[in-house]
Amino acid sequence: MSLLQASDISVRHGSTAVLEGVNLDLTAGEIVTIVGPNGSGKSTLLRVLIGALKPNKGKVTRAKGLQIGYVPQKLHIDPTMPLTVRRFLNLPASVGDDAAQAALDTAGVTELGKRQMTDLSGGQFQRVMLARAILGKPDVLMLDEATQGLDQPGSASFYRQIEEVRRKMGCAVLMVSHELHVVMSASDRVICLNGHVCCEGTPEVVSAAPAYRELFGTGTGGALALYRHDHDHHHDHDHDHPQTHEAAE
Fold first, then answer.
1. Element (H, E) at 215
2. Are 150 and 126 in contact (CB under 8 A)?
3. pLDDT at position 172, please?
4. Is the dihedral of CA 214, 220, 222, 225 positive or negative?
5. Higher pLDDT residue, 137 or 222?
6. Per-domain residue ranges for the chain?
7. How confident is the model at residue 162 (pLDDT cuts 50, 70, 90)?
8. In the CATH scheme, what is the homologous superfamily, with its name and number, of domain 27-36+67-239?
9. Is 93 exposed, middle or buried, given 0-12, 13-18 or 19+ CB atoms closer than 10 A?
10. Closest-CA residue to 34 (of 137, 135, 179, 249)
11. What share of the chain is helix, strand, coil (3-state, %, to 5)?
């Protein structure tokens, strides 16, 4: 079943075309990763899909009653303001203790409720952001470069958590990745974006596509590398870089 459909989306900033003729169809339960170079319109497309930005052309069709959970690229937390994880989950609307704890459990940070947000590592911060996004039991979970600032083990661990969220909740996942050659192994589909959709398909199909190789070169022998569990079996978020108060990256 189609949950979210973008048809012929075009976005311009002044005379500059950011997106041109983009089509996307997200179906229930699938994991889709969007890759592309800086300035390719990845974050702009997400903003259009969630309704935060009106396209100059085209339309977005959402399933009736569609719930979207969103994990942004960055979030600034004032380091002088005391804010526990549990209080953070009450923003912008208060939630019950059971619901908050269930979201933390699903996000893999069961014990963090009393911790200060500014004391979390990068990976822990992102998992708390994930918990907040899934509080509303979304049909679609969107993540905008959610592993930026994490090292490879930290990214792999976070991706594994996303797979677990999809398994538990059955939600579709639409993820923008800043890592040009590396996507989550569970991705059902990869979309290569550079202002327009250059190519899309399974990771194997996209990595063999001339448009992908033209954009990203052959830094990994032309292959699209995948995070696989045998690479990160013993890693967890203790490997993440410490979280700074500048941004949740």
1. helix 210-216
2. yes
3. 97
4. negative
5. 137
6. 27-36+67-239
7. very high
8. P-loop containing nucleotide triphosphate hydrolases (3.40.50.300)
9. exposed
10. 179
11. 30, 30, 40
